[in-house]
Specification:
The complex is a heterodimer. Chain A is mostly helical. Chain A has 19 helices and 4 strands. The N terminus of chain A is likely disordered. The chains are: A mainly alpha, B mainly beta.
């Protein structure tokens, strides 16, 4: 009896404190979790960087200049500013700080001072939908980022060699260690688990008039013509045009010929990027568009800041005079020529499908968090990631002046998620957030 | 319109049929036998048994027996040095010497994207 009373008291106190209930099985794949650990923590014996140094979970698994500006000087991203062995020809600190551009030697390491390109950091979302192509896996911006068999699994090895070394000798075993087969498997599994696992099926029943018009323009083969290469707003080509199983294709769209590119305006050295191959053929992989609105700046060189500007790019001379632009003119009889309202409409469509994806991802993260035993250390990680997605949904809609009613529901969800982070009635708050997310989604899409 | 576009893209599709690896530069720094998804699967590894200079060819003495490899104009020769303080570098067919350990990647179409040679 003497022991019973304190136990009861402890149990009651535990209940009041929201202590763990029944233990639930781990709801996530063990290999994916190991891949996540490696992605964010493993330096592979190198200069301190991890995959997550550039592919930030807080920034859609990419990196924007605004996010770079928030990082402390000791962040591993800035290793070239601190380590003498990496001070020259490893990064361009000015272009990294101003435009989140990373130095790549995809055409070879034999002339480090002159032979390099400055590229943005592509997000790693929805890779499950975008890596496959008729010609094998397409990774990175140029399609040739991965050594070995060119697979996403092998991409990590190329990234370690390019971005992780202690010195520019890049000696395996000294300047870094190579990932093991098991580590490559885990890293690939984690990356493939991120974001969408399948493409949309357009058209969606969008509620907003502008986004709905934007979708129509996007799909119109004589007007926007976007769907030919970004089928269903993804990264794959329209099988009706390019044949079944075309998957991800590379195109030379003339981005390199844009005038007044921000990085060039600084006067910093920024050699032209020849894209896939060595010598390159000017082609770059087609990126998925569902994820685009909250992952700017746009294109391989971060040359366009806004989603509206990215849509407008296809109106301009750089695209029209490019091999892809000329092909489109030959096939359709005209260049893409959207007026300002049409550009904004297509961008509104991209903003809305991005917000919908953010809401889907948020709900999935919260449900996974809820599937863990209450108090499990994984819950704050997942809830925190959901909070980033919600903030993106809010900013993407607000940035286009779209759907204030949905924005209001996103704010309600944010409040519930914030309370769930603080563990005050977590299960109840997660459900409240999910209800608000569903309400927000209903403002964006669905039959009227 | 679809038919015209489809006809137009044939050229693009063919142009895009370059092997996906297309000499990723980082292969230079990956040691013999460690190329992910390729080593021991699509490569032959062994000492250089003989050379056929006129054909830019070489025969490797592999565990499975002699393997003849014909380097083409597009074949990269990657030099890996036994002295770990020396950085790997691009070489040429002339760096392929009898008795040196080498690894050759033979693609599905029979081409040889690269040969790695261990230089003492």
């Amino acid at each position: 009896m003497e022991r019973w009373i304190p136990c009861t008291a402890l149990a009651a106190a535990a209940l009041l404190a929201g202590c763990p209930g029944p233990v639930k099985p781990i709801p996530e794949d063990a290999r994916v979790l190991e891949g996540e650990r490696l992605f964010f923590n493993e330096t592979f014996g190198g200069n301190g960087r991890t995959c997550g140094t550039c592919h930030r979970a807080e920034d859609n698994f990419g990196l924007s200049p605004a996010f770079v500006a928030t990082l402390p000087p000791e962040d591993p991203l800035f290793v070239a500013e601190r380590v003498p062995a990496l001070a020259g020809n490893f990064e361009s600190p000015e272009l990294m700080r101003k435009f989140a551009l990373i130095l790549e030697n995809q055409d070879g390491f034999d002339d480090l001072a002159n032979r390099f390109n400055m590229r943005g950091i592509p997000h790693t979302l929805a890779l499950a939908t975008s890596v496959a192509s008729r010609n094998g896996p397409h990774t990175g911006w140029g399609g040739d980022g991965a050594p070995g068999d060119g697979s996403l699994r092998s991409f990590a090895v190329g990234a370690v060699v390019q971005h992780f070394p202690k010195t520019l000798a890049r000696a395996a075993g000294q300047d870094f260690r190579l990932p093991s087969d098991a580590e490559l498997d885990a890293l690939a599994a984690f990356q493939l688990s991120l974001g969408r696992q399948q493409d949309l099926v357009l058209p969606l029943q969008l509620r907003g008039e502008v986004a709905r018009r934007g979708q129509a323009i996007f799909l119109d083969r004589t007007l926007g013509k976007c769907n030919a290469c970004h089928f269903n707003a993804g990264a794959n080509a329209d099988p009706a045009i390019f044949g079944p199983g075309a998957g991800n294709l590379r195109f030379n769209t003339g981005v390199e010929n844009l005038p007044d590119q921000p990085a060039d305006l600084t006067g910093a050295k920024n050699p032209p990027d020849d894209g896939f191959g060595n010598p390159g053929n000017g082609e770059f992989n087609t990126p998925p568009l569902v994820e685009s609105a909250d992952t700017g700046p746009f294109f391989h060189n971060n040359s366009v800041e806004t989603i509206e500007g990215a849509v407008a790019f296809y109106n301009g001379d750089a695209f029209t005079n490019s091999p892809s632009g000329q092909l489109l003119i030959g096939a359709t009889g005209s260049a893409i020529n959207l007026d300002a309202t049409q550009v904004v409409a297509v961008a509104a469509f991209l903003r809305v499908i991005n917000a919908l994806e953010n809401l889907r991802a948020t709900a999935a993260l919260l449900r996974t968090a809820d599937a863990y035993t209450s108090g499990h250390g994984r819950q704050p990680v997942l809830i925190g990631r959901a909070a980033f997605e919600l903030q993106d949904a809010l900013e993407v809609l607000q940035g286009g002046g779209l759907h204030p009613d949905a924005v209001a529901q996103v704010r309600v969800a944010q409040g519930a998620v914030e309370r769930a982070r603080k563990r005050s009635g977590r299960a109840r708050q997660l459900q409240a957030a999910l209800d608000a997310i569903e309400a927000a989604r209903g403002r964006l899409e669905g039959s009227t | 319109m679809i038919r015209r576009l489809a006809a137009g893209v044939v050229g693009l599709a063919l142009a895009g049929a370059v092997p996906v690896w297309a000499h990723p530069a980082t292969e230079l720094y990956i040691p013999i036998g460690k190329s992910p998804g390729v080593s021991h699967v699509k490569t032959r590894i062994g000492r250089i048994q003989s050379l056929a200079a006129a054909l830019s060819g070489l025969t490797l003495a592999t565990d499975a027996g002699p393997a003849y490899v014909a380097a083409g104009r597009a074949t990269r020769i990657y030099l890996q040095f036994a002295d770990p303080s020396r950085a790997n570098q691009l070489g040429s067919y002339a760096d392929c010497k009898q008795g040196l350990m080498a690894e050759a990647f033979i693609a599905e179409d029979g081409s040889v994207p690269w040969i790695k040679v261990l230089v003492p």
